Model the fold of this input.
Amino acid sequence: MKKFLFILLLIISAVSLFGCEGKGKIVIKEPPNAKVYIDGKYVGTTPLELTLTEGKYKVTVETTEFDSETKTVQVFFDRVVELRFKPKPKGILKADSIPKGAKVIEGKVTYGKTPLSVKLDPGEHLIVFKHGSLGASRKVNIEYKKVTEIFVNLEKAVIHFNLNPPDAELYVDGKRIEAPATVELEEGVHKAEVKKGVYQDKFKFSVKKGEEKNITYTLKDVQLPPIQAYAPIEFTKDYKFLVSLGKGGIYLWDLKDFKPHISVYDPQDVRNFDKFTNFDVSDNNKLIAGVKPIKALKYTLKYKDRPATKILVWNAETLSPVFSKVFYEDIVGVSFSQDNKSLFMATNDGRIIKLDIKDGSTTETDLTNLKLTDIKRFEDRIFISSEGGRLFAIDSKTGELLLHKKVHDSKINRLEISKDGSFLITSSNDGRIHLINRSLNIVDTIDVGSPVLAANLSISDDALAYSIGKTVKVISATDKYELYTIKGLNGDVIDVEFWTDEILITASGIKTPEIKLWNKGHLLRKWVQTIE
Done:
């Protein structure tokens, strides 16, 4: 009995051992004369017959170093598997990292740990590196018959800096970088400064460990896209917005991003057949008024043989009109009263019409049949200029005429008020610019010798800009010496405004719509940071 049990155990052990050591075969005939690798180990050339223990194997067949195909094959006990391969073009990726031993992954496939060399199909691959809590991804372009090397520092960020134009200066955290350059940075927020002549700007950017970024700084011309904007232009009282006219209506631009944040139009003339010619914005920025002579749509009016101007007032928050009416008058400009309840309208025949915005009632002040040219208000007084060179001051509450004086020998083209309200600035066809106080007394005169279309003081009153046709000059307001000149503009500049003491804005009229910004006489350009 004992002998029988011993023999039985031997038979069972033999069967078990035979099962564990069961083998099968794979046969590879095509392509001929190709190298064969089993789990990365060279085993011969085709045609080839291999006997392998049952299990899964990675079989790679190569016709050249850069032409191969890999298949995962299951070998079964006592069975023959015939395989055919069609090697495909490959490139080689060599990957390494800090720290070493990072997993190299693409999709759901793990190629191994760094450092490693792996053959990949030509084209773009997104390779992920992981080492504990550290990780990074990189796009690599694999080319046929070429070796692509990639090194990833998972403990720092890799930044590729580029400049356009390339001869600009770049500083990162105060250190000069000769771009184009690749720089490794610690995780966190970094400061960059870009310079080229008068154009300079500062930026911040943040990076993480293992991250790779392309950062480009491009110097671009500053303009007011995408609308053709035209003069007159004016800053709101708080200097938050630059207001201009444009193809579709009236626009309030934020010069931080050079985009119109508020725009209003005539809802009864959405195609803007008749263009706006003037405007005003209330001191609290809650109301916008527009002056729109009716010409193209005159056939819709009752009195077709009389001049007509449409006056609109919008709520700047809802952008909807709160007042809209056609006046059979040639209105050249408007100004809100100090309490923002009334609108003063200056007509071409020398009258000031005070309009109650709420009920539409009007009262008039007659300025002796003079052709008026411009209207501006500062605090409690509204100032009006005329073609005959006269200047008027009226009470902004009652409309009562307070003062009037002849200050020029011919037409006053433009009337401005200094930011602090100390001076009126008048520009005239008699070739003179006057600085005038609130009592309408001339404080200073600049004799240009040619008709002056527009003039304005800088924010600090240190500089004065004026336009003569397509040329703009900027002089010292005290010593009168020339600071710089801007020439060759596309149209006559009919308005100039200082954004800062250094930055001047020039604007031409509707026939040649153009608004340009200048930094000390240089066309304003802005560095733009692009991060990919």
